[in-house]
Amino acid sequence: MRIFYGVQGTGNGHITRARVMAKELQLAGIEVTFQFTGRPIDKFFDMEVFNGYQIRTGLTFNTHKGQVSYLKTALDAKPLTFLKDIKTLDLSGYDHILTDFEPVTAWAAKRQKKPVLGIGHQYAFNYPIPRAGADPIANQVMKYFAPADIGVGLHWHHFGEMILPPIIETPETPTRIIKNKIIVYLPFEDQAAVINLLAGFTDFEFHLYAPEVVASPYPHITCNPLSRTGFQKDLYDCGGIISNAGFELASEALQLGKKILVKPLHSQMEQISNAAALKELGYGHTMKTMDKAVIEPWLHDNHATHITYPNVAKVLVQWLQDGMPKMDADFVEKVWDGVNVIKLDLSKA
């Protein structure tokens, strides 16, 4: 079996999910060609698991101070390059075409009349899940950005729909938690402003990760470059995370039993909806702006949710090998039977 797998490179969530899928596909002996789009080639890191991969320009969303800018996105788009990439991508030698919200792969497959399997959080929006912040542009982007013939949607809860749990690593539960250690991942925010906002909380130890490192003058705030290994090490024993409302990091935090505070990107329907879902499910806290009045009580809150998710990547790889039979209610229910939700009291950790 040969698979072509397109992965959206804006942010790190899609790539994190693809890393988990790559390991299971390799264990199954399936030959995979990965393609990544949405960021410059020098901005990718820790990509060894993909054993060689293709890079194309694709499409991405531009942000400024924590808000998606549709105008800047449109101005910076390279439509001729995008169309050329679609026309020149040859998918004739592959048995299956997969996309994790990656548009070049999706549209090239459409052009070549090859079925597309979409795997990712965005495909959960084909169902009536918690939504917020929608507008006509956002709705069209979700529908047409990377269309799939079959969409396997992922979410923290099934909401009574044909949705699967997140695709994430399944590490052992941490045996030691440093309650005052907080991971901060706000790559779309002004990092100097984030540092200044956290400066007064000297009883806590903040570990910031960002694409561009800004020096911190405060001993309790450490700034780090993006590193999958370093980030995972800090995430493992921290007490909580402050982040934008991306799906994959929140999934990892829930799997490790970390308390969560998210600040969704403005004008980004997916992130605003993620924040709404976290709040509705009681899995995390939200804030609309970088607000000390929200951060301070959250820092002292000792409640978190620990969710054990099954190895969904392994389930999907086996499903692919079985010929992709229609996912019925029994199939989905069996996967969710492997999910366990526990409310934690961090004061006893």
From TrEMBL:
InterPro entries found in the cross-reference section: MJ1255-like
SUPFAM superfamilies: UDP-Glycosyltransferase/glycogen phosphorylase (SSF53756)
Pfam family, one: Glyco_trans_1_3
Name the record gives this protein: Glycosyltransferase
Superkingdom field: Bacteria
Gene Ontology molecular functions: transferase activity
Keywords attached to this entry: Transferase
Species annotation: Methylovulum psychrotolerans
